[in-house]
Design goal:
The structure holds 2 protein chains of 2 kinds.
Chain A: H1 2-26, H2 30-54, H3 63-80, H4 84-106, H5 111-130, H6 134-137, E1 143-144, H7 156-180, H8 182-192, H9 194-199, H10 204-230, E2 232-233, H11 240-253, H12 259-277, H13 282-298, H14 306-320
Antiparallel strand pairs in A: 1-2
Chain B: H1 2-35, H2 42-60, H3 64-90, H4 95-117, E1 132-135, E2 138-141, H5 142-164, H6 166-176, H7 178-183, H8 188-212, H9 223-236, H10 241-262, H11 266-281
Antiparallel strand pairs in B: 1-2
The chains are: A mainly alpha, B mainly alpha.
Chain lengths: 329, 292
């Protein structure tokens, strides 16, 4: 059974990778390519959020890190003229630094206290951006950002797509490595029982901060990528929407799993764009909300667990079938 | 004299905003006390209450202060449905799940309301618009005073309900000790539904009073007040209704003071600054004992 699942997983990964590499050659629609780039960026973002949740900390303010990464990278790129491909990582480092500061206030908090504080930080960061920092950030109007690649380069969108794809894969591999390592084990231990983890010699504060830093770093990478892709940024980046989307993607895909954020983001993006084609505007959100609630109640481990769940249902069905049936019918 | 006037004005605005927060926070506390559940979508019930009042007002033209009762009743029903079909199935599966579920509810209610009523800003004109009453050197709109009176009346009603009626006492018993309540024959699931509905109806009252005083509203109006109400109950102690009342007033005052001193932009952020400072010092809240 295990062997079969492992093989399935391997083929699944290969299939997804093959599709991801083939797509730009199958379509020349700029719209689809643009959509895919944004989807990849959100896969990084959702995976970043997921890693923090993996350590037992559910943040409702990840837009803060997304936005800080975007602003920091943009400002560095615009002021120094360095290519965004480099500044992304500096911008993300700023996000990670702020992440550690925010983490410091959160290390003793649990569940919804933590959710509240992180949510509040996103609002505070937004307020700072449009008030005290307005001379640098452009306030509510925002500022123009450097593009990843100049649109004058032929085929720049395909190059950009592969660059983002490479960063996405690197991020996921990094997260996979972290989850597998002792650090990941420590995160799990803290999530399951902080006291026991402490007794086993794990310093919860250190690991929680580490989770915050890594998660904020990756969220910052995602934010910076998105803004350098679009070429313009406004404080809307810190909005509630950007804090809630990664949560939605991850819950739907499967909380605390490596594949969850990836599958959740892909499936939801397809559904989202499909609904857009039907002309729904607000209705899309209602449907996504309903899906989220249904998933939490009926599929608590997300789409990742769907094959297992189906097997379970089938098994239960089968067990019921041999029950004696009234003869004669 | 002038300074004094400004000072008085800030206090008055603070009290007025505080009333809305008190109603929201009390509702949240009622729900938390009984079910030990948090509902981040609580602000959406405020929004629904506001829209129901506005719709009835636009259709009939009845004094909006009278519609508050209808709006509260409607929200008891909506709250009961949400409790039964969303929160009950996940009760006891972890607090993170409740947070995530609330996000789903926020999506549904905000955008559902936008589908029905559009996402334009709207406003309701109070019949007492423009009437002011002199208080000291200040001319206070009659609406503000009415809102304080209504809030006080609702809180007194709630107090009497919790202390004098059987259901109220059952609610208190359940919040003190759920297992004990079950043992003495209280149907705790029924109490859950009632508490959730009542909490929502308090939010509806808050929404109604908010728009009747001339505030503009749209489907997204509820999130920020609700999050502030969370800050208040964290500060004031989970499940403590007196804490919610004092915390609500303080939050209203702090926020309006900050808006005056630092600029209006800081109005929303300041409540979180306070919350974060308090939580850094005391991770369980100002009056909280257990780390729930």
């Amino acid at each position: 059974m295990h062997f079969k699942q492992d093989a399935m997983r391997k083929y699944g990964i290969i299939a997804i990778l093959a599709i991801a590499i083939a797509i730009p050659f199958l379509t020349d629609s700029m719209f689809i390519l643009n959509l895919l780039v944004l989807m990849l960026i959100f896969i990084i973002f959702a995976s970043a959020w997921n890693l923090l949740a993996y350590s037992g900390q559910g943040s409702l303010g990840h837009a803060a890190f997304f936005g800080i990464g975007a602003y920091a990278s943009t400002l560095i790129a615009v002021k120094s003229g360095i290519t965004p491909f480099v500044t992304i990582f500096f911008g993300a480092a700023v996000a990670a630094f702020i992440g550690i500061l925010i983490g410091l206030t959160c290390v003793r908090l649990k569940e919804w206290f933590l959710a509240m504080v992180t949510f509040g930080f996103a609002i505070i960061v937004q307020t700072l951006t449009v008030s005290v920092l307005a001379p640098v950030t452009g306030g509510w109007d925002g500022i123009a950002s450097a593009r990843l690649l100049s649109p004058s380069i032929p085929g720049y969108q395909i190059i950009e797509y592969f660059a983002v794809l490479a960063i996405t894969i690197a991020s996921i591999v990094a997260i996979w490595y972290i989850m597998k390592s002792r650090i990941g084990l420590a995160f799990l231990a803290i999530r399951e029982n902080e006291l026991e983890a402490q007794a086993a010699g794990i310093d919860p504060v250190r690991y929680r901060l580490l989770a915050f830093a890594i998660s904020a770093y990756l969220a910052g990478v995602a934010g910076a990528l998105q803004i350098h892709h679009i070429g313009y940024l406004t404080p809307e980046l810190y909005g509630v929407d950007n804090s809630f989307w990664p949560v939605t993607y991850v819950i739907l895909g499967g909380l605390g799993t490596l594949a969850g954020p990836v599958i959740g983001t892909i499936v939801l993006t397809i559904i989202w764009e499909g609904l857009k084609a039907t002309g729904l505007t607000f209705g899309r959100y209602v449907i996504v909300g309903a899906m989220l609630i249904l998933a939490i109640i009926f599929l608590p481990r997300g789409l990742v667990s769907l094959p297992e769940q189906v097997q379970e249902w089938v098994k239960r069905r089968k067990r019921k079938e041999p029950l004696p049936e009234p003869a004669g019918d | 004299m002038d300074n004094m006037g400004v000072f008085l004005q800030i206090i008055f605005w603070g009290l007025y905003a505080g009333c809305i927060y008190i109603l929201l926070a009390t509702g949240l506390n009622l729900i938390f006390g009984v079910m030990k559940t948090v509902n981040f979508a609580h602000g959406e019930f405020l929004m629904l209450g506001a829209y129901i009042t506005a719709t009835i007002f636009f259709l009939t033209g009845i004094n909006p202060y009278l519609i508050i009762l209808l709006s509260m009743l409607a929200l008891i029903g909506i709250g009961a449905v949400v409790e039964r079909f969303c929160f009950r199935p996940i009760l006891g599966t972890g607090k993170l799940n409740e947070i995530f579920l609330s996000i789903g509810l926020i999506y549904i209610f905000q955008n559902g309301a936008a589908m029905i009523w559009t996402d334009e800003w709207q406003s309701v004109k109070s019949p007492y618009d423009g009437i002011t009453i002199p208080v000291g050197s200040l001319f206070v709109p009659l609406d503000y005073i009415l809102i304080m009176v209504f809030t006080a009346a609702i809180l007194c009603g709630l107090y009497l309900f919790l202390n004098r009626t059987t259901i109220g006492m059952q609610m208190r018993a359940t919040s003190q000790n759920r297992k004990g309540a079950m043992l003495v024959g209280i149907n705790v699931e029924r109490i859950d539904i009632i508490s959730f509905g009542m909490g929502c109806s308090l939010a509806a009252a808050a929404g109604t009073l908010w728009i009747v005083s001339g505030q503009i509203f749209n489907p997204y109006m509820g999130s920020i007040p609700a999050i502030k109400a969370f800050a208040i109950i964290i500060l004031g102690g989970l499940g403590s209704i007196p804490g919610a009342i004092i915390g609500g007033l303080l939050m209203g005052l702090a926020e309006n003071g900050a808006a005056f001193l630092l600029g209006g932009i800081w109005k929303d952020a300041i409540s979180f600054v306070i919350l974060i400072i308090v939580l850094v010092v005391r991770p369980t809240g100002l009056f909280g004992e257990k780390g729930e």
